[in-house]
What we know:
α1 (about 10-35) packs across α3, α5 (about 125-140) runs parallel beside α6 and α15 runs parallel beside α16. The protein is about 40% helix and about 15% strand. It starts with 10 loop residues before the first helix and ends with a helix. α9 (about 215-235) links the parallel β4 and β5 (about 235-240). It is elongated, with a radius of gyration of 28 Å. By secondary structure, the chain is α/β, with parallel strands linked by helices. It contains 24 helices and 19 strands. The strands form four sheets. It has a seven-stranded mixed beta sheet, with helices on both faces. Strands 1-2-3-5-4 form a five-stranded parallel beta sheet, sandwiched between helices. The longest helix is centred in the first third of the chain and has 26 residues, at about 10-35.
Amino acid sequence: MTTIDKPRLDRAHVLSLLRDMIRVRKFEDKCAELYTQENIRGFLHLYDGEEAIAAGVIPVLEARDRIVATYREHGHALIRGVPMTTVMAEMYGKAEGCSGGRGGSMHLFDAGTHFYGGNAIVGGGLPLAAGLALADRMRDQDTVTACFFGEGAVAEGEFHEAMNLAALWNLPVLFVCENNGYAMGSALTRTESETDIAAKASAYKVEAHRVDGMDVVAVEAAARKAIHNIRTTGKPAFLECRTYRFRAHSMFDAQLYRDKAEVEKWRDSGPIVQFQGWLLENGLVHEEEVADIEAAIDAEIADAVAFAEAGTWEPVERLYVNTLGRQAEPPEGQNPSGETLETTYRDAVRDALRDALIRDDRVFLMGEDVGAYGGCYAVSKGLMEEFGEARIRDTPLSESGFTGAGIGAAAAGMRPIVELMTVNFSLLALDQIMNTAATIRHMSGGQFGVPLVIRMATGAGKQLAAQHSHSLEGWYAHIPGLRVLAPATLEDARGMLWTALEDPDPVLIFENVMLYNRAGSIDANAGPVDITKAAIRREGADLSLITYGGSLYKTLDAADALAATGISAEVVDLRSLRPLDDETIMASVGKTRRAVIVDEGWRSGSLAAEVSARIMEQVFWTLDAPVGRVCSEEVPIPYPKHLEDAAIPQVDKIVAAAKAVLGRS
């Protein structure tokens, strides 16, 4: 051992290591008792048997370093310095909890100690940690992010995607696999063809080491060396800590998959038994000192329980708090220059990206083929040459990994723009979008936000067949914690990104593929636009045609056709799909007394159904006819052009639906 990785085993240090492990063990024993009394509910995953890992790794980190943990994170939080009082209050769900009572046992957050929370999704924290480290790499900081996870996570795609990104981009992450042998109730040998976890990390050229996770001194020595190397080289490191959990996977687990003799055999060589026995045997501590440590911890636990039980329940009136962050004021309109430019939707988006990169050095673009290739739809063509590879980042084909990395970078203060090539590819990143980006503000009690923009192409019309022609923006509009935009005009394509990047929460921008080539004029001084309001694109008196995105121009054409027959149609461009601008919708329908909603999504469970329901709830008594809908047919989008056209909304269908609500043939 060198002086870098050799722990100083003086009395103060060994007492600290022993105290940390006993403190975690006793806290969790009390939590198990409180669970049986129904004071703690939900899932409860205990760290019993694995204490040497957190105790050996976390004190080696510096205060500025970050930690991403798993759902078994009580020990990590306590050793990191999150107060036991607020941890216990969080377990109770009280407002005084470290996450404001919104996270519970699996989601402990604490901004003050840079503790980025537990994660109930197996492997879900790995891309987040990579993104936190990416932010540090881009800012030339020597901060380390430590990411803890179990061996079950190595079967998840996020593990492999995060390993590859970390090695590819030299990200300063310490990956710590707490290999307890059972992902939940399945032994490692039953679920993995290769049971050498460190070898999996080595395959990605990440420096990896195996360590006895029951030996706190060995863990600390390995952590010291790994963290020193990360700070020196900037490259990631991996520790596989072989350990064993003595308790069930969770308090619901009957443990039918292993026998008691196996558990007792491991208990006999547990981390506290080993270390305490060695200290006593060598006279480094004495029995009375251990008793004093335990008494002090018992008193701390009693205080924590009293704190939690005296805590308050957050009022129901605060239910919606921390779903979204504090919203910025709508942008002031730019003064028209009087000069117009001819452009296309594609170029308007590119100009918006360029402006964002110039205005704010925290902004960067990453995604598949956004750099050297110029983007699948040529939106980012030329940007890599202008801004360099650090800010226009080509990623592997790993949507969950690089989207999660974007989430982490945003949580660390950057302003990433993630491009997902097509909306169907976004489903590979749905876990990260829904379970992390949309929830972290809520689960952390408002401590962490994700100011991230995700762009993606959507829609049909280019004969790309069933797997590349989806319109799924309505699905994302279902998820609280997100803002969902659908720019249709050149002005919105140019200005929505500006405003979205100032939003404190994740914003998804859906760009319809049929709009990229659309050309027109735009004011040379076009700037940010209000992303909270729908827009009236055409005034009318007889009915409201409500639409968004790629269907806007078909709807305007339908309004022209209706006007030729004496029907005055008002066209409402929703623009923002979440949140919907009810005020503008209801004002229009209240005036015209009839509505048809045009939505390229499938009819069943569509965004059109949501808009229709809101109209029925809010202005039903003003209606002179049932609300009509024009949606895509209930089939996968076909390849042949005539069938594709038949499957999605067209002008003739919109005209027919409008005439139907007016009682005309």
